[in-house]
Amino acid sequence: MKKIILLLAVTTTLFSCKEETNEKVKDVTKAITTDVKQSLDTVKEKAKNAIDSSKIKEKAKNLIIKGAEKLEEGAKKVKEEAAKK
Questions:
Q1: pTM score > 0.85 for this model?
Q2: What's the pLDDT tens digit per position in 56-83?
Q3: For the chain, which terminus, N or C, has the lower number of CB atoms within 10 Å?
Q4: Over 70: is that where the pLDDT of 19 sits?
Q5: C-alpha dist (Å) from residue 82 to 69, 70, 73
Q6: Start-to-end C-alpha separation, the chain
Q7: d(C-alpha 36, C-alpha 18), whole Å
C-alpha cells in the first residue's frame, strides 16, 4: 500500500517537474512499478502456498479420522475374539 501511494506521489510530481528531473522521475516510477509488481507476485505466491497447505491439512485430517476408525474396528475385533475364549 505504501508503495502504491509513493508511486502516485512520484507520478504527480512528474507533471510539475522540469525536464531534467522528469527523466529521473520516470526512472524512479519504473523502478517503483517493478517493485510493486514483484511484491504482488510474492503475495500471490504466499496466498497460493497457504491455500495448498490448507488443502493438505484437510487431507491429513481425513486420513487421521479414517485411521482412527480402522483402529476402533480392530479393537472391537480383538475384544470379540477375547470374549469368545
A1: no
A2: 778 888 888 888 888 888 888 887 777 7
A3: C
A4: no
A5: 20, 18, 14
A6: 73
A7: 26
